[in-house]
Amino acid sequence: MYFDVASTAPLHPVARQALTAALDEGWADPARLYRSGRQARMLLDAARETVAEVLGARADEISFTASGTQAVQLGMLGALAGNRRRGGHLVHSAVEHSSVLHVADRHEMAGGSVSVVPVDRTGRVSADGFAGLLRTDTALAALQSANHEVGTVQPVEEVAALCREAQVPLLVDAAQSAGRVDVPAGWSLLTASAHKWGGPPGVGVLAVRKGVRYASPLPADEREGGRVPGYVNVPAIVAAAASLRAVRAEAERENARLHVLVERIRARVPQLVPEVEVVGDPVRRLPHIVTFSCLYVDGEVLLTELDRAGFAVSSGSSCTSSTLTPSHVLAAMGVLTEGNVRVSLPYGTAEADVERFLTVLPELVAGVRAPLGLDLPAPKATVETPPRAEGRAGAENDERQATDEGGSAGEKSVGAGSESPEASGRVTVIDALGKRCPLPVIELAKRIGEVPEGGTVAVLSDDEAARLDIPAWCEMRGQEYAGEAPAADFGGDRGSAYLVVRRTT
């Protein structure tokens, strides 16, 4: 079962039909005046009209790019360049897509300034908080319509009204919502990506409202309103427009159906699997996305086991990232980053498919956790849970999580404090240096029972994820996070010490 449309959606049947037809009829250069060129131009113009109608724009405000990422980059750079006389200040939320963050980094390196708007624990910005960072020299603000990792919908219209009052253009990244829900009003620039709604990959959309100052950051080109250089892929654009119209026509019915299925996942996963945190706004969210994080689980192992069971899902966990750094979205929300699973349901998902997912998930998570020997609490409700798996998942997890060259995390002591309280503050030290997520949290869970109530544990770690996951663990388990100190204060040669005070048994 393919449950990862937030990454890319399968090609819609209408897109496939339109692409095949356009390959025969729209292959020529739409800038030429001969018959085949005019025919290609007619197809391109019709596609532009369709996309403009669905997105609530004028046809001459729409430009096609090679991807949603390119649309974001050109939109931001063009708006910053167009408003450079106003100033060099950029504002964006802490949970934007990486394409926004990379432009912000480049802008800052070039001498501009950047302000980042924090989010609450659901991943949502405050409209007033966003507006509070706008300045007289703010050249651009950027806010996604809905988050790509947790599905939380942002207050775009309220932010847009405040930006308009401050005379600051607002770029809205609508990659996750375009085609599924109505585009929020008030934007100055809008970006979208066709492969998110079932169009072919390689087609992005950049819309720039009339009157918005925009200067192309690239050399001049006569195509696409001078905003996007290069030859346009007419057949792919035609297919993208056809599929956008098709999914928008069926969105109301399918959204209602998927919303029910996602609600079932949100409610039952914590009932079936102990120590799980469902993240994202429970109400103001996209209807097809649900994300949850499992304590003491290596995300890569869990996703691999789900794949073997026939489910394609995604993750924002640092354990599944090529950079081995925590998801900036989950980090900004202050939620657990380990063992993260994102389920995003495609149109047509059957109820039986979701039920099967809910049947196999507890068994797989139990198998991943089995070698750890943790005394986990029972699920939150009386629900029959499948038996714990002892096969391939457990064996591989034993190799990945419980061993690491020199042995399990925490096995090596750091001074006398690792086995007995230190005289300076009765601190039990756990050495998790060199161990990646979720080992530091696993060792904390194993050792917390040795500490008397009111006693302190210092977890030494040089893994960035520990800075996020240990406080999240404390909140989930009713313990007190007491802050961070240099690992050297507790005998470590690098990293940080994360201090936890035991408050519950």
List keywords for this structure.
seven-stranded mixed beta sheet; single chain; 15% strand; 505 residues; alpha/beta; globular
Describe the structure.
With 505 residues, the protein is an alpha/beta fold. Helix content is 36%, strand content 15%. The protein is built from 13 helices and 14 strands. It has helices at 13-25, 35-55, 68-82, 98-109, 127-131, 156-165, 234-272, 299-308, 328-333, 351-369, 392-401, 439-447, 466-477; strands at residues 62-65, 89-93, 113-117, 138-144, 170-173, 189-193, 204-208, 276-279, 289-294, 340-344, 427-431, 456-461, 480-486, 496-501. Strands 1-7-6-5-4-2-3 form a seven-stranded mixed sheet, with helices on both faces. Helix 2 (35-55) packs parallel to helix 7 and helix 3 packs parallel to helix 4. The longest helix has 39 residues, at 234-272. The protein is globular, with a radius of gyration of 25 Å.
Summed up:
The protein is an alpha/beta fold and 505 residues long.
Helical content class = 25-40%
Terminal-residue CA separation = 41 Å
Q: Indicate the multimeric state.
A: single chain
3D shape: globular
Please specify the SSE layout and strand pairing.
Blueprint: H1 13-25, H2 35-55, E1 62-65, H3 68-82, E2 89-93, H4 98-109, E3 113-117, H5 127-131, E4 138-144, H6 156-165, E5 170-173, E6 189-193, E7 204-208, H7 234-272, E8 276-279, E9 289-294, H8 299-308, H9 328-333, E10 340-344, H10 351-369, H11 392-401, E11 427-431, H12 439-447, E12 456-461, H13 466-477, E13 480-486, E14 496-501
Parallel strand pairs: 2-3, 2-4, 4-5, 5-6, 11-12
Antiparallel strand pairs: 1-7, 6-7, 8-9, 9-10, 12-14, 13-14
